[in-house]
Amino acid sequence: MKKVLVGMSGGIDSSVTVALLQQKGYAVSGITMRVLPQYEKNDPAVDALSVAKKLGIDLEIVDVSSAFENSVIQNFIEEYRMGNTPNPCICCNSNIKFGLLYNYAISNGYDFFATGHYAIIEDGCLYRGLDRQKDQSYFLYPVYNVDCSRILFPLGALTKKEVRNIAASLGLPNANKDESQDICFIQGTDYSEFLRQRCSSLFKPGPVKNVDGKVIGTHTGIYQFTIGQRKGLGALGSPMYVKDILPLENTVIAAGNQELFSNCLLLNNVVCGAGGVETGRSYQVQVRYRSAAVSGKIESYNGQSIKIVFDQPVRAIAPGQSAVLYNNKGAVVAGGIIQRSN
User: What is the pLDDT of residues 218-235, one digit of tens each?
Assistant: First the structure.
């Protein structure tokens, strides 16, 4: 009997993942990570323990708070300090879930590591999940850093509604639990207060300038802006949006909508699937989680960085976010962190 270690968050998705793997005949155990030294609320171990007892599996609770602090939280803060818009979920997937936890599973004799993500792995390739409203393949390209044939995503071919129905039919204690929309490591406050406590320099007032360098307003901290944003700029005489953030000058550059479009972008920290990518070939490129993929051609690739030229200009590309490349079969071929766009 094949052994699977399931990453359990205490939510419905990972709980149903356990049940489906049991039904398929796997010997299942669970592992729950605590990413904070202590929790004010929403300790993931509480619901995970309840589900593990209901389903009759062993659950190990591990403290990864030190590694999480160093690789995820510090990156989150530093990206904001640099005027970027970070994506901590991708950082966590790369370093913790499909780094630390995956390696723990394999080194402890498990045949597979599984999670409740909505994506599909088939023949060594990562594909979009069937439920396009829940598809999480954008966040999951870091699985190509490891042997993804040893990763299972049992929910990839299901819709969220089907998963909830399964949870209810099994009588799982968390069947009616709401989905969390919060950043998992920010407890009892919003991200701005978290940043205020950890990096007060982000809250320094500064100028808002137009593309010609003229001061047209003020801001109360660069942390609150991302490329393409209008909210928070104040009344500037005409509709204006964030075009750039200059952290060394503590300055926000505002421009009209027509000036937010880019013809190309540069990706660093690129992770590719087994087939790699081809210079001169076009792919579908997704530059944010909820944005539609657009066609772009790889102009250059040096093993770590990719330059992509778009068929049509793309609006509001934000450094710090990821861009993920898909082929015409819907498979993820590569992903990386956006450094800049032109």
Answer: 999 999 999 999 998 988
